[in-house]
Each structure stands twice: as C-alpha cells, then as structure tokens.
UniProtKB/TrEMBL annotation:
UniProt key word Flavoprotein: yes
Record-given protein name: Acyl-CoA dehydrogenase family protein
Organism: Amycolatopsis samaneae
GO molecular function, one term: oxidoreductase activity
UniProt record similarity statement: Belongs to the acyl-CoA dehydrogenase family.
UniProt domain Acyl-CoA dehydrogenase/oxidase C-terminal: residue ranges: 237-385
Length: 385
C-alpha cells in the first residue's frame, strides 16, 4: 500500500477549539508515528503481552507518557490526550491500547489519589517502567457497575479482597491495578470503594484471555488478597464516583481513537477505489462508490467536531457527560461503519487474514462495547436532555 496521508485534518485543528500547543503536539506525534510506521505493529503470532511491554517502554522512553508524572508540564488536558490517541490509533492499534490503559489508570490516581499514592505510582507509569490497569468489570457486572460483587472486608488496619474481575486490559502485565470493590457501606453503587492493588499481591492471579484483536487482556481472581490501609483510592464508599469520573473522561478519548481508525480505513478505501479498475473505469468513478466515500467523509467530520466539543468542554470545566457520550457513540459507530464500507470497496482483497484492513476491521469492533456500550450512551444522552 502507498504511504498513508496524515492523521489529522489541518483545517479542523485550526478551529478555535484547539490551541497552538495542540497543533504543535499533533505535528510532533504524527512525525514520531510516521517514522515508526510498520514497526509498531506486533509481528504475526507475537505474544501480545510481550509486545505491549515493548510498546510501553518505547512510549515511555520517547516521552509520550511524561504528562502522567509528578511534574507533568504541558499536555495534560483532554484535548492533548485525544490528539495522542488519534495519532497512535491511526498508526497502530496496540500502541493506542497501551497508551490509553496507562493514561486511564494514571489519571484515576492523579485525580483521586493522595500525595503519597502519587509519589509511589506516578513516576513509574510516566516513565513506562510500570504498567497500570483498571479492574472494574466482573462476570456479573459490566454495563451496570453498581452490581460489582468483589468484596473488600476490613481486617486489622487493612482489607482482604475476594472475588473476580474480567476483561481487564493489561490485567496480566499490570504492576498496579485500580480495583473497584464492595465495602458494603450502602446499597448498590453506594457500597463501593476503589483500591490500588499491586500486580504481585499475594492471592491475586491473572489468566490471559485471547481477544479478537491481539492485546494483553485477562481475568483476575482475588483469593484472600490482603492490602494495606494506604491502598484506598479516594474516600470509602466513593468508588462508584471514581469509576464514573474515569469512564466519562475515557469516553472522549475513545472517540478520538475511533477517529484515528476511521481516517485510516477511509484512506485505504480511497486509495483502493482510485487504483482498482472495473467496467473500464476506476471504482472511484462509480456513483455508488462515490456515495460510500462521501458518507465516510461526512461521518468523520461529524465525529471530529463532536470529539473536539466534548474535550474542549471538559478542559474548560463544563458539564460534559452528554457531550462525551455523544462523541463516543457517534465516533465508534461511524468507525465500525467506515471499516465495514472499506472492506466492501476492497471486495475479497479486504478479507485476507492479517492484511492491514482485515486487522483494522477486527480492531474497531470492541470500541462500541467498552467504556459504555452504545445503548448505555444513548440512555445517558436522552436522560440529560
Ligand atoms: C477490548 C475490551 C477491553 C476491556 N477492558 C476493560 C478494562 O480494562 N477494565 C474493565 O473493568 N473492563 C474492561 N472491559 C469490559 C467492558 O467495560 C465491558 O465489556 C462493558 O462495560 C460492557 O459490559 P458487558 O460486556 O458485561 O456487557 P453487558 O453489561 O452484559 O451488556 C451486554 C449488552 O447489553 C446491552 N445493554 C447494556 N446496558 C443496556 C441498557 N441500559 N440499555 C439497552 N441495552 C443495554 C448492550 O448492547 C451491551 O453491549 C473491556 C472490554 C473490552 C471488549
């Protein structure tokens, strides 16, 4: 395939929703990704956990996690996180995956942790020497986190965890996990507390799960897993608030990643439609193919604007829950539709196992499920009207 066009639409970045710092960041990360294009992806059959470790080291070395440290400097705002995720997702799914999980777990600590927890965990997460994970979901609690059943029982001056978590990104390689547990201070969501648990804690066992697109992903079991009193993240009984805060921010960044995937799928489709001949002309000259390409462009533009609105609003301290839900809903559904339409334009060539487009087709599927399935987002939007 020919070289890809750039990740970002310059005209969109010129809008007053962005600052010069975002434009400079977009240029820097685009150049970094382009220099490594083709080397970030795991080789066929590679161990996803090992590749995630290698990518984390490289992201840390290159400074892309530096904003998560004790002295974060520039680029901590949500628009900057979105710029990084869009570029990484455009170039390599797994690089975006590693960046996003590291960012998610560190921001839970930054936003809800004590100074001591900051000192203990943030430097390693920012340098890429330690991996983070968020362990919220359970076999019986996914969309409805108020049903979390893993128990944290007071024992001496600490707690003992018993139960299981599932679908945990980086769960098999994490050095520190943000765990949502039931302390029973109230019913449903009021009985939950967040904790920081070391990946090597006694009684914690991780079992890798194979995913549709390769990634480090695991089920966790906690059997009499003992944690100290300093492990509590935020106030007791406020775990649900911590989870919703983290998920709301994450939704905006998932929308940005979806944009990266969608722009790449659209670039593949355009290139193929211009090169492939049928009926003595190019596919791109057929009116129905033109219609598919135009639909891609409009969906990407709408997703870009919705994502920028949500991130701008979050950065300016506004109520952005509805905007975050709308951005994630539209951008992830659009990315799925665009990847599917790109495969249609490729015909059989789009279905060759492990080809760039077939991999992308698998990579975008999960976006419509994690950090709030589309139906939950529709509920949030409707309830906020
Ligand atoms: C690749 C990937 C990575 C993940 N990483 C993590 C992680 O790091 N940490 C973590 O804690 N979890 C993680 N998850 C889990 C993810 O958060 C859950 O899959 C998600 O919350 C949905 O929960 P569920 O899968 O149990 O689906 P369920 O809650 O069983 O829902 C199934 C379906 O029911 C429908 N539905 C749900 N609620 C409603 C509603 N209110 N109205 C109408 N329809 C509804 C939706 O179509 C939904 O897809 C990950 C998932 C994936 C796919």
């Amino acid at each position: 395939m020919a070289p890809l066009p750039t990740t970002f639409e310059p005209e969109l970045l010129e809008l007053p929703l962005f600052d010069d710092a975002h434009r400079a960041l977009a240029r820097r990360i685009e150049r970094w990704c382009a220099d490594r294009h083709g080397t970030l992806a795991p080789p066929t059959g590679a161990d996803p956990a090992a590749h995630c470790r290698a990518l984390r080291t490289e992201l840390g070395h290159s400074g892309w996690l530096g904003h998560l440290g004790l002295e974060p400097g520039e680029g901590t705002d949500l628009r900057s996180v979105c710029v990084r995720r869009q570029a990484l997702a455009f170039h390599e799914d797994l690089a975006d995956f590693v960046y996003s999980i590291q960012e998610l777990s560190a921001s839970a600590i930054i936003r809800h942790g004590s100074e001591e927890q900051h000192r203990r965990h943030l430097p390693g997460l920012a340098e890429g020497t330690r991996a983070g994970a968020l362990a919220f979901s359970e076999p019986g609690a996914g969309s409805d986190l108020s049903a979390v059943a893993l128990t944290a029982t007071e024992d001496g001056d600490g707690f003992v965890l018993n139960g299981s978590k599932t679908w945990i990104a980086q769960g098999d390689i994490a050095d520190v996990l943000v765990v949502l547990a039931r302390t029973g201070d109230g019913p449903g969501p009021l009985g939950l507390t967040a904790f920081l648990v070391d990946g090597d804690a006694g009684g914690l066992k991780a079992t890798p799960i194979r995913a549709i697109a390769p990634r480090s992903w695991a089920e966790l079991t906690f059997t009499d897993c003992r944690i100290g009193p300093d492990a509590m993240l935020g106030d007791r009984g406020h775990g649900y608030v911590v989870a919703l805060d983290v998920l709301e921010r994450a939704r905006v960044t998932v929308a940005a990643a979806a944009l990266g995937f969608a722009r790449r799928a659209c670039a593949y489709a355009l290139e193929r439609a211009r090169a492939r001949r049928a009926y003595s002309r190019r596919l791109a000259d057929l009116q129905l193919v033109k219609s598919a390409l135009a639909a891609m462009d409009v969906k990407i533009a709408a997703a870009s604007l919705l994502t920028a609105r949500a991130a701008w609003s979050a950065d300016h301290g506004g109520e952005y829950g509805r905007y975050a839900a709308a951005a994630k809903l539209h951008a992830t559904e659009a990315a799925g539709e665009i990847a599917d339409a790109a495969v249609q334009i490729f015909g059989a060539a789009g279905l060759v196992a492990d080809s760039p487009l077939e991999r992308l087709y698998r990579q975008v599927r999960s976006l419509r499920i994690y950090e709030g399935p589309s139906e939950v987002l529709e509920m949030i939007i409707a309830d906020a009207l």
